[in-house]
Specification:
The structure is a homodimer. By secondary structure, chain A is an alpha/beta fold. Helices cover about 40% and strands about 25% of the residues of chain A. In chain A, a hairpin with a 4-residue loop joins strand 10 and strand 11.
């Protein structure tokens, strides 16, 4: 089961849009045990399409094509493939029915001008696309499957999920494949693999562990994949190893599957009936934004302060003038007063305070760019941490945000000692 | 001048990382008048590399390869290409010199184990890579150019910009190509093209206008591209049309080239010696984050408040209890009091206040999800606007942020009437 992905579209080829379809499709195919040997991006030309299909046939028995199925002249995929497979186009009533339903949702009527969108190659399996007016097509010849889908990412996702992947699973006899993903933060890939050395050694050959780091989200996804004949047995087995992985890494695991760190922190606060606020200097509101990106965050988050200037730190958070003069705004002393100040100001149980030099300029030899102090507090204790990051402003803001949220999570779990 | 891009790497092929190199490279090549006919992603295997190069030769005379130049066993690009072009690998002193310099920056020493990284094919032009330890290679055979670069995006950018693109321009005689980009906001692509109908009609055939929308940033980039033999004349000509485009669109243009809306707003504030603050409910700190993402924003931004709960709106911003009860937090009355309150709290000249239902839940029949009120104020006036957006929480936050910043910009330019 080798697949080749062909993405058709000038806007990808000139770099106007980034080809996210290929990555998403490859991930989904991999999850089903299909190996992607190649992805090709070509323009909307019949010759390019035929050449790409011919080349793909040499390395794959599954060829997935996206793009070029729209109603305009540029869109030549359907005609090209029909000709290539020697099939006639004929009016396909269910496709037109689908177009009518979609138009109705927008209060419009689909007239005969849209009939040509519903003409489909006779002999191909038509894949009705509930998210768009262009149906997908499934061709099969000489043990090679060629599927054509529209290029809009939302439509690709729909057709892959509800039509193509189930059909592929049905078509090829293959073992059951199961996946479980645990999300870790606070440790890099190398540290994790040290901690997991024994766990990995003891994994049976049909269960694999993949490390998938995501710098932007400050986490490493740990994905267990198991394949075997007996679904029930496999299910029990992967659950066992998932639990073992969870036990080995303890608090470094903050969530599962598609969760985010801010979601995990929010859930913890909600469960414990606690509230949180923030006093942000160099992160400029980014922690607040993350916390409030979660629907329902008003249950634990009343509001917060961005304290950029020293005057605001002094006047609204009660940071003493002498602290600012003696230690500076980027100091342990300052964030300690900030965190206490904001906790009182918004009357919350928990608080996060941050002050640092995000860069790219503004550093001194004593406090270079990337020097950042974090303080976190609950009602019982306060914890501080100094970061020494790089010179990239946005990267510093992102990393500080993730680290601060994780410290807060660890404090709630009474696990700050795992920090050291 | 047709190019084919070949990206080598399993992590792209399995969808673990999105292929941003291809899009960036294609953009840069297009800007130099090089047409990209195809991009291919393959895995780290000699056969796949040779097959891809052979296939690329049929559609392009410039083949740009990224990836597979690292020091590990997986990295086979250099050996494969050397064999393909029948070249020996030999120790290349300038490449090792470069490795030593890079190691020194990290306080480390490059010993002989790194010699193999500096072995280069004899007969290829070596492209020294100041951003990484793997040098690039430029092969030329039968009027076809094959260039190999490492896969790290930063390194691709360096080598393309300082080595590959200048060499391509030198190698091929071609007309001068110039570009000018203006950034617009507040109008969609269709509205803009209506406004620019006459302008486009009057453009000479050697000057083209491209619309490049970016939903995330709430803008449409308008790129003028001119090609011709006489560089000086072309320069004068494209400047003239740029000015004409600017005059036609007036305040809808907020910046040029790589500027952002928050940067443009910051520049305006700085020029006028004004300060700004924000009182954010549903955007949860996102406007503050955007404003402070600009280095030097402390000159005009002292701090701000995220007022999520009604209590915070009342207690810290002075929104009256009767306002909250009678009109609700999502109302013109509320944002009017919020904007005045925050302006006084932080003693700034300007202020932005936002309150709305970001979703996906929490709407009523009277105020459905996506109902959002914005108020902006300077010392002389206050302006309000009601938005009716969709149900996607993050999209609503992003769009509201962009619209609010643009309203503030228009107020500073005394151009709020263009809003209607």
């Amino acid at each position: 089961m080798n697949a080749c992905i062909i993405n058709i579209g000038d806007e990808i080829l000139i770099g106007q849009i980034i080809n996210t379809n290929a990555a998403w499709m490859a991930q989904q195919l991999n999850l089903q045990g299909v190996n992607v040997t190649q992805t090709i991006v070509i323009n909307d030309s019949p010759q390019a399409i035929i050449d790409a299909v011919e080349a793909a046939k040499k390395v794959a028995n599954i060829i997935l094509i996206t793009g070029g199925l729209g109603p305009t002249k540029d869109d030549v995929t359907k005609h090209t493939l029909a000709t290539y497979f020697n099939m006639k186009l004929e009016y396909h009533a269910p496709s037109f029915e689908n177009i009518k339903i979609l138009f109705k949702q927008y209060g419009r009527e689909a007239d005969e001008r849209y009939h040509s969108q519903a003409n489909m190659p006779v002999g191909a399996t038509v894949l009705i696309n509930k998210t768009g007016t262009a149906s997908g097509m499934w061709f099969e010849q000489d043990d090679c499957i060629v599927v054509a889908m529209p290029g809009v990412p939302r439509e690709v996702k729909y057709l892959m999920q509800y039509e193509v992947l189930p059909k592929l699973v049905e078509r090829f006899e293959r073992p059951t494949i199961l996946h479980r993903t645990l999300l870790s933060t606070g440790k890099g890939e190398t540290d994790l693999s040290d901690l997991l050395e024994q766990f990995e050694e003891e994994l049976p050959p049909h269960i694999k562990l993949a490390y998938l780091p995501n710098t932007e989200k400050g986490m490493v996804r740990l994905r267990l994949s198991a394949s075997g004949a007996n679904a029930n047995q496999l299910e029990a087995e992967i659950e066992k190893y998932k639990q073992q992985l969870q036990d080995t890494l303890g608090v470094y695991i903050f969530g599962i599957e598609e969760e985010s760190l801010e979601e995990a922190l929010g859930t913890l606060l909600k469960e414990r009936g606690l509230t949180i606020t923030t006093a942000e200097s160099c992160t400029g509101g980014n922690i607040a934004r993350k916390l409030t990106s979660i629907a329902g965050s008003s249950a634990y988050y009343p509001g917060s302060l961005v304290a950029y200037s020293n005057e605001v730190k002094n006047k609204h958070l009660g940071v003493q003038q002498t602290t600012l003069e003696q230690y500076g705004a980027v100091s342990e002393e300052c964030v300690l007063e900030m965190v206490k100040g904001v906790q009182q100001l918004f009357k919350t149980n928990c608080a996060i305070a941050v002050s640092g030099i995000a860069g790219p300029d503004g550093g001194t030899s004593e406090k270079p760019v990337g020097t950042i102090w974090i303080a976190i507090a609950n009602e019982a204790e306060v914890y501080t941490k100094k970061l020494q990051l790089g010179t990239d402003r946005l990267q510093n803001i992102t990393r500080t945000t993730n680290i601060a949220m994780n410290l807060m999570r660890l404090m709630l779990l009474d696990a700050l000692d795992s920090e050291i």
